[in-house]
Design a protein that fits this description.
With 73 residues, the protein is mainly alpha-helical. Helix content is 56%, strand content 11%. The chain is globular, with a radius of gyration of 10 Å. The termini are far apart. This is Transcriptional regulator.
Length: 73
């Protein structure tokens, strides 16, 4: 599931989930906040973590400084 385009720009899904994770620390809460199925939010959260935009621990996520910067763009 692509959350970041090859040029580094966030996809619509990536931006929605990153925005949800900025306020809600779990993919489940982020999914509810942005209107996505939980499985898509979980997959997107892992993809955002792999891209260095979020970091996860024990099922909770936080934006990295780069994730915060990208969300502000």
């Amino acid at each position: 599931m692509a959350c970041v385009k090859p040029n580094g720009e966030l996809t619509e899904l990536g931006r929605r989930v990153l925005d949800g994770l900025a306020v809600h620390a779990t993919p489940e809460a982020a999914a509810a906040a942005v209107g996505l199925p939980v499985y898509r939010a979980r997959m997107a959260a892992r993809a955002l973590e792999a891209a260095g935009l979020a970091r996860g621990e024990a099922g909770r996520y936080a934006l990295t400084p780069e994730g915060e910067r990208r969300l502000a763009m």
